[in-house]
Hints:
By secondary structure, the protein is mainly alpha-helical. It is 58% helix and 7% strand.
Amino acid sequence: MAVDLAPGLTFKVVSPPVLALVKMASYLDDRHGRAKGLLDVRRLWQWYEHNGERVFGEDVFKADLTDIEFAGAFLLGLDLRKIATAQDLQLIGRFLSQLESSPVDLPALDLEGRDAERTRQQIIAFRRGLGG
Length: 132
């Protein structure tokens, strides 16, 4: 996707859903060497569409999330589902299963002890967005 930074200055960048998919694939390829990629995915779940109007859209309210805080994860799942192939969806499923089976390996986003539950809720919201 193209991003205009200034008049006459446009950069091509990867879209957040594609970036999330690449980070998931690289994490599965080398779990220990790519732990930062997992942190990046968690940040995408947290901040995706954070300041956008979609956070308060009908899709988010119909998703019945436990908190509006998880709207970004839901919307990222929704947008990723639109572009994902069957093979991509299998990869995403393996990634999510890995996270759910090894929550102790998750790098912390905060130091207040809320990360395990927050991550669980992000995964639930992301899965809802994916349609699963």
